[in-house]
Amino acid sequence: MSKRRGFDIDFPSTQDGVYTGGGRRTSAPAPASKPEARRGPMAAAISENADALRERAEAERAIREENDRLAHEHVRLKRAGLITDLIAIDAIRTEKLTRDRGTGADPDIAELKASIRAIGLSNPIQVEPVGDGYELVQGFRRLRAYRELFAETGDEAFARIPAGLVATGEALEGLYRRMVDENLVRRDISFAEMAVLAMRYAEDPGTASADVASAVDVLFASAGRQKRSYIRHFAGLVETLGDVLQHPEAISRNLGLDVAKRMSAERGFEARLRKALSEQGERSADYEVAVLQDALKTTQSAPAPRSPSGKNAAAKTTLRCTVPAGTVRCAARDGKVELQMERDFSSIDRHRLEAAVAAFMAALDD
C-alpha cells in the first residue's frame, strides 16, 4: 500500500494578516466601488422577513390611528345626533321623559301622516340607546304617526323609523332641554303644554328643580324673561283647574293670563269657574274656551233677581257651532238667545231671517 504524501502550503504573511494572492504586492489598490457582500439563503430570508414585519407593524400602526380617529368622529357625530339608523318602532320607549303632548286626539296628526306617506320622514327622531332598546328624546308626534300608519296599513315600511342616535349617558336635564328647544320652534305648542312640562320636570326625582319656577328657568332658558313669566302663570292655572279642564292646550295666552289674574285677585272666582266647567260634562275645546271667556265677563255682585218663572235669569249656556259659513257662538239665557259670528246679518233679507228664526224655534220644540 502506498502512503499518500502530505505537504503544507505556506502563505506569505502581510501586515494586516490577510493574504492578497501573491507575495510580491505589499498593498492592493483601492477598488472603484465596494462590492456588495454576498448573502446566503438563510440571511436573505431573515432580512426579507424583518422587512415584512416592519411593513406590517407600520400598517397596523396606521390602522390603529385611523380607527382611533373614526371612533372619536363617531362619538362626536353621535353626541350631535347626526348618526341615524332605522329603528323598530316597538323597540322605542317613551318613559324616561315626560312629554308635553297628551295621548288624546291630535288634530294635526293626519296632516303629518299624509306627508310621511308622500315624501317620507325628512327629520329623524332622536333616541338614546338603553339596554336592549331605545328611549325617545325628540319626536313624539313623528313616532306616533309611524305607529298609527303601521297599525292602519300593516306596511313594513312603517315598522322602522329613521332615528338619530344620541350618546348614552347624557344628563337628564340635557335630554329635557333637547326636547324643549325643539318644541319652542313649533308654532302650535301652547303655553299650557309648556307649563305641564315644567310641572312634570319639577316632580321628576331625577332633576334638581324643586319647584315649577326653577323648572321653567332651567327648561326654557333660551326663551325670553316675559315668556317664562307667562309659562309660570299658566302653570298656576293648570295646577288649580287641571282636574276640570279638558282642553287646556286650547287656552290662548291672553285668556289664560286673564283667568289666572282673576283667580288671584277675586275671592270666589275660582269656585264659580270650577262649578261652571264641572256642570258642562264632555265638551269641545271651543266650548270650554267660551265658558272661560263668559266667566271673565261675569262680575261678582248681589244675587240676580228671580224671573217670574222662578228660574235664575243669570243662568246661561254657551256653545260654539261650526257651519259652512264659519263658527257661530251661541249664548242662551232665560228668555234670551244670542248668536254671534263674523257676518253682517243686517244685509240678509227680512223674510229669510224670519223663516230661519221660525225653523230654529220649530227645531227646538221637536
Automatic annotation (TrEMBL):
Domain ParB-like N-terminal: 85-184
A Pfam family recorded for this sequence: ParB_N
Region ranges (Disordered): 1-43
GO biological process entries: chromosome segregation
Cellular component aspect of the GO annotation: chromosome
Name used for this protein in its record: Chromosome partitioning protein, ParB family
Gene source species: Salipiger thiooxidans
